[in-house]
Amino acid sequence: MCGIFAAISDRPVAGVLVEGLKRLEYRGYDSAGVATIDDEGLRRVCAVGKVSALQQRVEAEPLPGCIGIAHTRWATHGAPSEVNSHPHMASGVAVVHNGIVENHGELRQRLERQGCRFLSETDSEVIPWLISCAVADGSGPARAVRSLGEHIEGSYAVAVMTENDRNVLHAKRHGSPLVAALGPRGGYLSSDISALAGLADEAVVLSDGDQVELRRDAISVFDKSGRPVLRARLPIDAVGEHFDKGGHPHYMLKEIHDQPAVARAIEARYDKSPFVAEQVALDFNQIDRIRLIACGTSYYACLVAKRWFAEVAGLSSDVELASEHRYAPVVADGQREAAILVSQSGETADTLASLEKLRGLRTPTIGIVNQQVSTLAREADFFLPLLAGAEIGVASTKAFTAQLLVLARLVAHAAEQRGQRAAARRLRAALGEAAKTIEAVLHNEAAIVAVAGILAKARSALFVGRGALYPLAMEGALKLKEISYIHAEGFAAGELKHGPIALVDADTPVVALAPSGDLFPKLASNVREIAARKGKIILLGDRKALLALSDVADASLTLPACDELLQPIIAAIPLQFLAYHVAVARGCDIDHPRNLAKSVTVE
Ligand code: F6R
After folding, report:
1. Residue 295 C-alpha to ligand 1 middle, in angstroms?
2. Mean of pLDDT over the chain
3. From 251, 344, 400, mutation site for ligand 1 pocket: most ligand atoms within 8 A of C-beta
4. Are residues 555 and 476 in the same domain?
């Protein structure tokens, strides 16, 4: 949420800053801004909306200067506007900020009493004022940046430059991600390592509390207590791997089509060696209960895993939304727990707060994360990578199926340890079919486009499923609402009659996840209850299931028959396609849905 990019070079940096912001745009696209320092001092250009709007402004009013900072904003405090855009400036100091200053009201009042004049409504503007006041009191810029920790409550990553010293960029992180890198043409700071592709070969990953002084030819990192420190360097992958849409019009569509390859990558890594055992040094025989924690789509993956843990490994589990778990009362019931935290980005603020809480409780933690350079990947006790590659579309697709595939591998490992060998074998065999079954669904895209036409006209839609497909009903509804803005809700099919069936009418399509299996007869009855109320039914199921309900279906999408354990993974694909094609039909901005951002680093 919010992207920071900064550069110091031997040539003007405005172009490279705007390019960097384009790569970080998934983090927020309410407004963008850039500031540089040239012979005449600080200059800033901002624009509301996407980075392309900023690019036009920068092309129209060129910004000289070989040192600069830039920002793409997801608005928290104050509407998207030029004045609320970063960089914020105060007496020769310019700052970009990612995070939230929770005590900004109090700081602002204090600074106003000292004569500081605020221009924006943002929490962030207190930061340049805090720094400029410290500098006015005699601190050097580095000390002034260090002193932010004494004033600010909340999370932040900041990049700072001052008119008085054009040879250094300062940065500090506390709870929000930041990496630094040196390339042949200078030094860079970025919220995300992938945005540095093509500029440098490796990046220094900062730890919480670290401060950086970045020069054209040197990176100096200092830990919380101000001691120089060496941090891990990680290779930066080539540009194409991250930003190529592979000939598709949107990242989301490309990422849907990436899924067979992701399934194969997971299969190759997780199946051919005792990979989970090597990564996770836990004995599942010594664990009474699993706690699964995540947000949004990742939370739905956890709900599916809960059923697998019970059915395959005989382990009970609780699934919690991180935003609730972090403040939930702790019950010391003597159960031995292990926690699994699932996240595409590894930077979701609520999930990281849960991690912190679990650490305090001494609960062992397993992070299942796509972004290997992330706080959750680094700080969980054990780490399982998703191997989905960069997911740029804001709506999660391939990361979700990767989460399911990796969670299933962990379940199979736990089952094996607990002596449930036959169940583990069955799950592994089903997973071995995942890539080609997903491929079969992808071939069905044309049929999905036709069905999307029905949903595209609706004002509201319902999704229903049972068992492990109930979370998929919620995921299907989330996908639809976030990118097409159609109101959608997912329900357990058996719950409809307890209230939601009141919503059913001829104008409200109901997507029913109805593949063959133990629960099919129950689901079929629920579908008939909907039909009896003139609901428009879109069925997703294998041939046998579709045939059994053909008399009530308004439209149907055929899923390949597969092991029931695999069904949630396979059902995800048509739901993603449906949301995508409905959003296309409605002319929505697929990769940048309104009000959203990819990496939710604020609470
Ligand atoms: C929806 C979506 C979000 C994320 C949620 C958690 O398509 O992407 O609901 O799943 O914000 O993000 P991560 O997985 O990065 O923790």
Report:
1. 6
2. 95
3. 344
4. yes
